[in-house]
Every structure is written in C-alpha cells, then in structure tokens.
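Hi Y.,

Following your request, here is the sequence exactly as I used it, all 107 residues.
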Amino acid sequence: MDLKLYRIKEMGKNSNLLALVDVLYNRDLVICGVRIINGRDGRFVTMPQRSYEKGGKTNWINITYFVAPSDMDTFKKEVLKLYNEHCASQSGLDVPQDAQNTPDLGL
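Below is the corresponding structure, written out as tokens. Let me know if you'd prefer a different format.
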C-alpha cells in the first residue's frame, strides 16, 4: 500500500483530536478528512465520517472505507506510522518512542 500524508492540520494538545489529514493513496486518490485521535488506549485513526439522525439519536457512518477489513487495518496502521514520523520531525509535539523519520510529503 503506497501512502503519503498529503496535507496535515494539527489540532493542538488540548484536544483528543490531534490532527485531520488528507492521505494520498497509491498516487491516484486523496482521502480527505482522516482523523488522528488520542484515546484512552493511545492514538488511533478514523476514516472520514458523516452524521445522520435515526430515532432522535445522532449516528455516525464512514463515508470512505475498504471492503476488506485487513486492508482497512493496514491503511490505519500505515497512516498512524506516517503521522508519528511527521511528529518526530516537529519540535514540541508529543512523539511516541517508536516514531522514525519524516515522510516525503511531495507528490
């Protein structure tokens, strides 16, 4: 899976939402609005979503997804790895110990 972080919007340390990223997938498709979340059990990735009302309750549904669950898992792990590498290159951001080098953000 060939992924690059195309655009990164950092949200700050005071929010569980760390960043919104646009991901270039296989040099053919940009997936906009991927979220990097800081949860109780660590960082995780969510796909772009939209809300809808059903029975008076607000629900959320992914608007972009992979058909195969294994591809979705691979995508999320790779995006998180690329984000951690990006954080490692930025001073003052909270970076996990396993973060490595900066990704090539060019097309």
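Residues 51 and 60 are 4 Å apart (CA to CA).

Thanks again,
Q.
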